[in-house]
Here is the input.
Amino acid sequence: MSLYRTELRRLAKRRFTRYMSLLGLLVLAAVVIGVFFTNQKIGADQMAQAERQAEQSYQEQVRWSEQERAACEQAKTAGTATDGRYPDDCSVITPPPREQIQADWFLPSTFNFRETFDETLIPFAAILALVGFVVGASFVGAEWSTGGMMNLLLWRPKRLTVLLTKLAALLTGMLAVTLPAAVLWFAGFWAVASFRGSTEKMTAGAWQSSALTGLRGVVLVLVLTTIGFALASLGRHTAMALGGVVAVMVVGQFGLGILLSMASVRFTEAWLLPTYAAAWMQKKITLQDWNSCNANYYGECKPDTLDITWQQSSVLLSVGLVVILGAALWAIRRRDIS
Amino acid sequence: MPAVLEIEGLRKTYKSRRRGTRNALDGFDMRVDAGQVHGFLGPNGSGKTTTLRTLLGLIRPDGGRMTLLGHEVPAALPTVAGQVGAIVESPQFFPHFSARDTLSLLAGAGEVPATRVDEVLELVGLRDRAGERVKTYSLGMKQRLAVASALLKNPKLLILDEPANGLDPGGIREMRTLMRTLAESGMTVVLSSHILGEIQLICDSVTIISLGRRVAFGPVDEVLAQHSSGAVRVRLEAVSDLPTATEALTRAGIRVTGHPDHLMLAGVDKPAMITRLLAEQNLYVSELAPIAVDLESVFLELTATAPVPGQHRQVDESTKVGGTGQPGATGGGWGA
Here is the structure.
């Protein structure tokens, strides 16, 4: 327990931890503030303004179609309407029906909590997962590269206990940042919705759905924190984790994506990790193969689809976590420390 | 005297596809008795740090037995770690923490009272600089911090690898005094160093390692005596008598090397015999001085690392001596 408390202190004392956490929280705050200022509450004034703009747009359409019809008839009379610019029958040039130009199109952006909040949890989880990854990697990587780990092992010679205690302290620290940040995120967007949108239709089911999405976000943060920690411990340097991620993203993701596209592989995104992260957060992602065509009754072409579910993502995350953390534990147990 | 540290037949082999097999430790033995300051000497690459790392559980041995404070290690390391303070190789600390933070975190991990931090900072002379970040420290200050970290547990056994490295002359003297004070308080100190004059001054006993094997061990004076060549320098009242003296001594079976103003005699057991022999020839001695060996010359002789003009000795070019019956062995060993 003393080691756990000490590691928590060490984590909190590190400037990198403080700065990265602060930076992550500032980015999150910037997102909330940005959304606040780019949305408006819809009231009678906004509706009336939108109606006016819709009517104005309709009138422009009417004017334009009348001009075009007149030009068409003039061209026909002059015998110059042979370039295909105008239809054979100029009377078909008509404005769209008034009801097709909807006032909704002219409404300012508004934040509907029920419809939009879950989407905001994706950048929330992504930003904190990135913070967790680099903080986790640095927490153990810097200890290895500066000799701190060796010093610690001279005091506490149980290697697995030391590494797992460090990880436990790290995850506690990340939770201590993530959970209050999540509460503030909920509160912040509730405020945005209250002042710049709508909080209607937030039923118990909607709250439960949002809470579960938030929970999956927290799990994603913790998993990526653990992976960063384990990779850095495996390579005994922070750069191992960061370099590993760059390698996976550049070679394994961009390169693989280009290669699969060139080979015309179906559902290329199914091979890319971000797809699974998105599926984890959104519960399901439907991939479409635009090279296929399934004609429906009306002759419409429908692409083949492939669903990636959060359950499949959870298997991938679990396997990745077990393999990487297992390798780190094996390495610290077996490898000499020099 | 009970042994605080015992090593028997320790082996560590590094295998590499490119560089082949290298025996870092090749059946190494060592024994340190309680309350001693023990010097652990060896040329670069001889296996000193490997031995210390293995002893402290950082490296897995390929064979042999080790005990610390009577407990078999590495199995019992969690039990004895609280009583063993150690610095291995150069001091390494997280550069952005202050000395006080560094020690405080170690104290926390080792369940040592926080008050001990200030005690050891005072002891190593870092009290006034304890709040500064370690990255601003000189090598000598980092060394002091390393010693402080090792002392933090108030250990029964203190293992210091090159503790004087980077220290100024005053610091070296302070370190020497500290080592002696600690030993007098009952702490056993194992000191690895290349400053052989210091070792000779501080240590009660030594172990010399070369190419992974022990080549000499025992109390310092016994090791020196064992490697004393029995050389004696003789001066006569008249330099012109030196050739006559050379003839008389050579006849008596003594190896003589002539110099312009004195003679060097080798293999002399009893210097009194020289005065008697020369007096019989009416030659009178003005100086008869046994030539004392120092630890440095013994070390260079045993490890065959003395510089040779025109040659560039490579690391690992040193002496490998057979296990038992090795020259320089003056007693001790596992269970002795």
The interface with chain A takes residues 53, 56-60, 74, 77-78, 81, 84, 86, 88, 91-97, 101, 105-106, 108-111, 149, 153 of chain B (CB under 8 Å). Chain B has a mean pLDDT of 83. Chain B has eleven helices and 14 strands. Residues 124 and 144 of chain B are 6 Å apart (CA to CA).
